[in-house]
Structure prediction request, 302 residues.
Amino acid sequence: MVVSNRYRLSSMTASPRPAFIPGLSAIAADYDAIICDVWGVIHNGTQANVASVEALRRFRSQTNRPVILLTNAPRPSGPIFTQLDGLNVPRDAYDDIVTSGDATVNHLKSAAVNRYIHIGPKRDLALFEGLDGSFSDDADGEIIVCTGLHDDEREEPEDYCVRFEELAGRGLKMVCANPDLVVERGGKLVHCAGALARLYTEIGGQAQIIGKPYAPVYDLTRQRLTALSGSSIPSDRILAIGDGLPTDIQGAVNQDLGVLFVTAGIHAADFGAADSPQPDKVEARLDADGLHADAVMPRLVW
Prediction:
């Protein structure tokens, strides 16, 4: 496909610059699989992005190649299937879901602890189903498992300073099940577990952060892709799509994957009009963060 090769050539120069493409169809032929972010690309927390869903459906139907949704949700993938069903995201838009929660469960199973201090909302309790051990208070807990703020509509990370100073003083390790600092919910940015993990380390505590951009969740995703495809797919034939620079894009760069940066997500205000990002601002931000993208578009469309 001539047009897709033209777009790909821009990322193979000594100083790669992203191609600002009209749609996924311009580069679809260059990839054998897609790893796509969920929150910020597929939906905004309250409603699905219909055009993005259709783009993934068409990639699957026209190329017969797999799509895995990769999210930093701090819960196992089961509830995410249900959540997407509720947002009318059809299951023929993707083949599987991998979550930060899935990788966190694997990590906790290997940890020799029995008493968990859970910091996060009750909706995340599914993370602990099937794990040995029990919940504990701050005085007796052996490990902190952070899935978010207890009430992210009203609380700020700073509300946890005193508690974290006491926990860090005891030398307790925090496992953060969601590296995201913020996420967009219905047009409003709310803090996530990553913001608490950052605060905990600033206070002097130790935090093990699971999920994008770290390797364990990508290792799990590659295992799923291999199972779906029947063979291992080379990194440069996998396209990672996301809107978060420190998570989606950093993780894709770390893994040497193809990168499609969706700009009208959590960084939209940095690039001018949401539907018409200014190329110079996008490139400057990527350079400043030490990142690159093969392609850029405001929102995922076919």
User: Anything to note?
Assistant: The chain has two domains: 22-72+213-297, 103-209. DSSP finds nine helices and 14 strands in the chain. The longest strand covers residues 67-71. Residues 103-209 form a domain with the Rossmann fold fold (CATH 3.40.50.1000).
